[in-house]
Amino acid sequence: MICDATLDQTISKALDGERIAAGDALRLYGALPLSELGMLADARRQQKKADAYDGRGNQIITYIVDRNINYTNVCDVYCKFCAFYRTESDAEGYVISHEEIARKVEELVAVGGTQILLQGGHHPKLGIEFYLDLLGFIKTRFPQVNIHGFSPPEFCHFAEVFRMPLAEVIRRFKEAGLGSIPGGGAEILVDRVRNRIAPKKCKTDEWLAVMRCAHEQGLRTSATMMFGHVETVEDRIEHLQRLRDLQDQTGGFTAFICWTFQPEHTRLRARTVGSHEYLRMLALARVFLDNFDNVQASWVTQGPKIGQVALKFGANDFGGLMMEENVVSSAGTAFRITLEEMKRLIAELGYESRQRDNWYRLLN
User: Fold this and answer.
1) Residue 247 to residues 91, 216, 241, 250, Cα–Cα distance (Å)
2) In what order do the strands lie in the sheet containing 294-296?
3) CATH no., domain 31-355
């Protein structure tokens, strides 16, 4: 048996709740069996969520009842990994009406939902009044529902199309009813990778600038990573480093969510990865992102069973009920789940399921 003192020291640092460096993360990723990396991540989860227990001593796993609403599928960015977008000339292109929005949100509220995820393509002709009217309509009609809306690439697009400073765009959206910003469009925060898979989308520093600006204006945001295509493990760790650095400065990220590239119907040709790689990356993220309180499982791309397993690999949140999902399903993945099944999967591991809002406040 070969003793690796350096690896042992890194493991000890992680178990003691200390920060590990990028080189340490790469070492853990390559040297530890999946089961051991998972146990290390689970220990970090328990450290971070030490107060997340119910009155009977059970650990709490959270979830949110939400709905994705894509206000348009028209987009002029043409990302190679996306099967959802349409061009202006496509017969399937659409811009959603207020009436359709209201129907969708009413269905969400009827089942106890508290949030919509409002995102769309980079429509080249919609002006700022369209977005402000849309936000105002939703917030006036459904004041109890949080609008978790748009994404950094969309905000970069808005600033360009509206010919307006980014901070001003975010300020006006917030005043109109925007409650928080999702971390979409991060993919891999390394420009060499972004230039290959989405050359027209915002660059790494621009993505981070949107998040910094949002945090400075009091908007909380999530952070994401879509991996398993043309990037390296070193690229993934650099992505995590950029997120951790910004979180040190602003504290504005609520959670981290990662998922694997879904290839069907897309133009990106890459060797995809499976659940083993997903769990390994999820676990590494929990260990490395020591300043993130919450890590979310991605049952939407991995399926409910792997979503359940993820709760032993560093995740403390099962994500959203997600009454509607169009982007990932366009790429060939179409998992669905009921609230009862979600609660059962959590309970089977001996945890207590609790509904939360976007800010991870418990609702029940």
Assistant:
1) 42, 12, 10, 5
2) 221-227, 253-260, 294-296, 317-320, 60-64, 352-355
3) 3.20.20.70
Buried b (16+ CB within 10 A) or exposed e, 33-66: eeeebbbbbbbbbeebbeebeeeeeebbbbbbbb
Would you put residue 268 in left (φ > 0), alpha (ψ -120 to 50) or beta? beta
Measure the CA–CA gap between 214 and 167, rounded to whole angstroms.
8
Q: Is there a contact between 331 and 262 (Cβ–Cβ < 8 Å)?
A: yes
Question: What does the block give as tokens for 338?
Answer: 């009921």
Residue bearing tokens 């939360």: 356
C-alpha span between 322 and 334 (Å, rounded): 12
pTM equals 0.90
Q: Which residues pair with 117 in a beta bridge?
A: 68, 148
Structure token pair of residue 231: 């990037």
Identify residue 247 by its one-letter amino acid code. Answer: Q
As a whole number of angstroms, the distance between CA 121 and CA 87 comes to 10
User: For 232-260, what is each residue's pLDDT tens digit?
Assistant: 999 999 999 999 999 999 999 999 999 99
> Edge to edge, what strands does the sheet with 146-149 contain?
66-70, 115-119, 146-149
Question: What's the pLDDT at 82?
Answer: 57
**Helices marked H in the chain:** 5-15, 22-31, 34-48, 98-110, 128-141, 152-162, 166-176, 191-197, 204-216, 233-250, 275-288, 299-302, 304-310, 327-330, 339-347
Residues in the chain: 364
Domain boundaries along the sequence of the chain: 31-355
* Strand 146-149, strand 294-296: pairing: unpaired
Q: What distance in Å separates the CA atoms of residue 265 and residue 333, rounded to the nearest whole number?
A: 11
CA distances in angstroms from 55 to 52, 60, 311, 349, 352, listed in the order given: 10, 10, 21, 18, 10
Q: Which regions of the chain are under pLDDT 70?
A: 1-3, 76-92, 123, 263-271, 322-335
Residue pair 241/203 in contact (Cβ under 8 Å)? The answer is: no
